[in-house]
Design brief:
Blueprint (H helix, E strand, L loop, with lengths): L5 E11 L2 E6 L4 E4 L3 H4 L5 E10 L2 E9 L10 H13 L4
Parallel strand pairs: 3-5
Antiparallel strand pairs: 1-2, 1-4, 2-3, 4-5
Length: 92
């Protein structure tokens, strides 16, 4: 799987020190990049949509508990705007 690919995963979020891990239902795990939305979902069954940023690393675009609707404040459009702004900043 190349970097930048989109993924929809279902699993349980665990916290290990300063890291957040998604234990995927059916096996495997992803390290999640820190995000304010992830903190509120520790030890919960969730659905995550995200972008692969490393071998087993995922940037969370949006997250919800299994059986709930997607929160309106989390959207692909907002994520893409943040991503585009990060890329357009001049490097020091």
């Amino acid at each position: 799987m190349p970097l930048g690919t989109l993924h929809t995963l279902e699993g349980t979020v665990r916290r290990e020190g300063h890291r957040f891990i998604l234990l995927v239902h059916g096996g495997g795990e992803w390290e999640l990049e820190p995000d304010r939305y992830v903190v509120g979902h520790v030890d919960c069954a969730v659905v995550i949509e995200g972008v692969r940023t490393g071998f087993n690393r995922l940037e969370v675009v949006r997250i919800k508990r299994v059986g709930e609707e997607w929160p309106p404040e989390q959207s692909w459009t907002k994520w893409f705007d943040r991503w585009r702004n990060r890329r357009s900043r001049p490097k020091d």
